[in-house]
Amino acid sequence: MTKYILLAVILGSVAWAAGLVGLPKSILGFEKWTVVAKNLETGGAHAGQNKQVFANKIAAGAWKKTGKLPIGSLIVKTGGKVSSPTFVATMEKRSSGWYYEEYFPRNGKYVLVYGGPNGQALCKDCHAGGTDELFTRP
Ligand code: HEC
Fold first, then answer.
1. Most CB within 10 Å of its CB: which of 5, 28, 73, 112?
2. What is the pLDDT of residues 40-60, one digit of tens each?
3. Chain-wide mean pLDDT for the chain?
């Protein structure tokens, strides 16, 4: 019996992971991170409905206290349903500064469309207007 329950749990998590296939490993499980903002309906670069912003452990505490985030901080923003987002935008604080990526679902998996190795300026130029390049406040 326990064996079957275990199997069901494993198959269940494989199915879940397949829904978000293509996203970087570093952000998997983000829906359990600290929710910084819910149901944002802002327009602009990330126009869309029902946007949510998540912060990993490293980011969550520091953000509230100082507004500046240490290296290793990860911020994830999704549009639409968190289980099958219409886009996934990420910001990672590296020693060289914030690193940006934005993924969209294409034929059953998420692919990097904006940001990434050749697209930092697009994101960074606009985010330069934020505090430590961030807009959403907890
Ligand atoms: C034209 C301006 C503009 C550009 C270009 C832009 N952003 Fe943003 N971004 C915003 C604004 C404004 C917000 C806050 C409002 C919102 O979430 O809609 C935001 C919010 C975010 C957030 C949530 C954390 C925060 O700062 O509030 C992430 C993550 C993010 N953007 C990633 C990206 C990535 C990745 C790119 C490039 C692919 C990008 N952004 C390009 C304006 C921009």
1. 73
2. 877 777 777 789 999 999 999
3. 86
The pTM of the full predicted model, rounded to 2 decimals, is: 0.87
CA 4 to ligand 1 centroid distance, Å: 44
For the stretch 86-121, pLDDT in tens is 999 999 999 999 999 999 999 999 999 999 999 999
Distance 86 CA to ligand 1 centre (A): 15
* Ligand 1: lining residues by beta carbon, under 6 Å: 40, 42, 44-46, 51, 53, 75, 77, 89-91, 100-102, 114-115, 122-123, 126-127, 130, 134-136
Q: Whose CA is nearest to atom 2 of ligand 1?
A: 126
Residue of the CA atom closest to atom 22 of ligand 1: 77
How far apart, in whole angstroms, are the C-alpha atoms of residue 134 and residue 127? Answer: 6
As a three-state string, the secondary structure of 39-71 is: EECCCHHHCCCCEEEEECHHHHHHHHHHCCCCC
Q: Mind listing the domains of the chain with CATH numbers?
A: 2-127 (3.50.70)
